[in-house]
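User: Please fill in residues for this 446-position structure.
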């Protein structure tokens, strides 16, 4: 059996025994039981399975489902129990709650027992005793903490009210919106709506429009809708933009003096043709004796963004830049990633660098990690760099050829000595027109 299949089989067995143990205690008396008794009752008849039962008992004890009344002996706290968990809502009505037991299946929650909890809400549930052979069920008795929910969809405005027809797989109902909460939206607009209330007696939640994205079906509006649906904000909060605008782009003589000055070393960037944030660069020079000094330089964002600042917190929440077909949603405000920290040609820039000394066979003789200041000589697109490598003609042709030769030797040695695996894959590049609609697809091997 393949390793992946074995893992899947183990996880499935774990979930089955987890449910069996819960059912056992739901139907047992209040006497304490040790792991051997529980194992016998649920059919865990091998040492490996009995070890699994011990693990499950410990997890259920932490979760508050059973109590360890004496060392190694457990009893049900009651025939049904209370637990905190995270609500999982599905538009098909198959809701559940995750009470945090590793590898345990979420417990089913019928819609009538959901108290209108939304996906991601922290809830208190009452777990009912299951009938023999059946899985337990839960009922939400209190919503402890609402996860702020935004939903994307198409707006319909009526005479006395409006509603959002959502695109979400987590909500099966429309959202009611008072007419004074439309933020200028009209019928047919793609909008982002935040739920503000869901009265217990109401079949639909109440919300208000946070953002009008554009007309449904238009490329720009639909792209923004996708971003909003997956929590990828394309706008920055005003306080973050203000903080970015206050950052001075200049580099002082004192800062240069604290760094390794590599501005006279041949340096360049290689990025997609439509890139604006050049965050890494390469440098190359030959040392006395014939070895090569290869520099890998990364934009020094930390010089400008201090820990705990509003920009730092926003970047932490975003975690990474997101690259879509026709745009980039950057991790940092545009002033930083496309201007101050972008390693643009013929501009002094602050960087973190790793400087390698390599011989002609690409064997590393020594290296150092340091703060540097660089000045890029040239910005290449991937296509430009490849064309120069193939023709041997063009800007910095010798430097590109040298680095390519060193890289090939490193790669070959990695496959020969390190057991590396090469995956053949295809990269797809969309060509789009001025309106953002795809007009061609280009495929090449990566």
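Assistant: Residues filled in for all 446 positions:
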């Amino acid at each position: 059996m393949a390793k992946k299949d074995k893992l899947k089989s183990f996880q499935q067995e774990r979930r089955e025994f987890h449910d069996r143990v819960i059912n056992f205690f739901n139907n047992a008396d209040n006497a304490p039981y040790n792991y051997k008794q529980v194992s016998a009752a649920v059919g865990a008849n091998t040492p490996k399975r009995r070890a699994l039962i011990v693990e499950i008992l410990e997890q259920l004890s932490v979760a508050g489902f059973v109590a360890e009344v004496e060392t190694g002996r457990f009893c049900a706290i009651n025939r049904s129990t209370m637990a905190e968990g995270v609500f999982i809502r599905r538009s098909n009505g198959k809701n559940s709650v995750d009470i945090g037991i590793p590898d345990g299946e979420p417990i089913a929650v019928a819609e009538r027992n959901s108290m209108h909890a939304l996906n991601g809400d922290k809830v208190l549930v009452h777990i009912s005793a299951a009938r023999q052979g059946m899985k337990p069920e839960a009922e939400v008795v209190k919503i402890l903490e609402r996860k702020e929910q935004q939903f994307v969809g198409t707006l319909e405005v009526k005479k006395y009210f409006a509603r959002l027809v959502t695109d979400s797989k987590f909500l099966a109902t429309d959202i009611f919106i008072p007419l004074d909460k439309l933020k200028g939206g009209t019928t047919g607009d793609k909008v982002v709506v935040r739920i503000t209330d869901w009265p217990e007696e109401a079949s639909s939640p109440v919300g208000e429009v946070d953002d009008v994205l554009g007309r449904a079906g238009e490329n720009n509006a639909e792209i923004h809708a996708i971003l909003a649906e997956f929590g990828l904000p394309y706008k920055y909060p005003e306080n973050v933009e203000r903080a970015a605008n206050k950052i001075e782009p200049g580099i002082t003589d004192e800062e240069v003096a604290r760094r390794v000055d590599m501005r006279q070393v041949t340096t360049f960037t290689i990025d997609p043709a439509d890139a604006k944030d050049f965050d890494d660069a390469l440098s190359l020079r030959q040392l006395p004796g014939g070895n090569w000094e290869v520099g890998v330089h990364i934009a020094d964002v930390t010089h400008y963004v201090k820990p705990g600042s509003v920009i730092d917190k926003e970047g932490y929440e975003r975690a990474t830049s997101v690259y879509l077909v026709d745009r980039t949603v950057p991790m940092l405000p545009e002033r930083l990633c496309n201007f101050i920290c972008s390693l643009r040609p013929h501009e002094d820039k602050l960087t973190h660098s790793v400087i390698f000394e390599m011989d002609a066979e690409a064997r590393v003789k020594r290296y150092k990690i340091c703060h540097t200041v660089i000045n890029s000589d040239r910005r290449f697109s991937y296509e430009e760099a490849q064309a120069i490598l193939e023709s041997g003609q063009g800007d910095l042709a010798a430097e590109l050829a040298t680095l390519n030769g060193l890289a090939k030797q490193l790669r070959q040695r990695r496959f020969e000595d390190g057991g590396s695996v090469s995956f053949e894959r295809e990269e797809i590049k969309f060509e789009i027109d001025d309106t953002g609609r795809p007009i061609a697809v280009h495929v090449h091997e990566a």
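For context: The mean pLDDT is 87.
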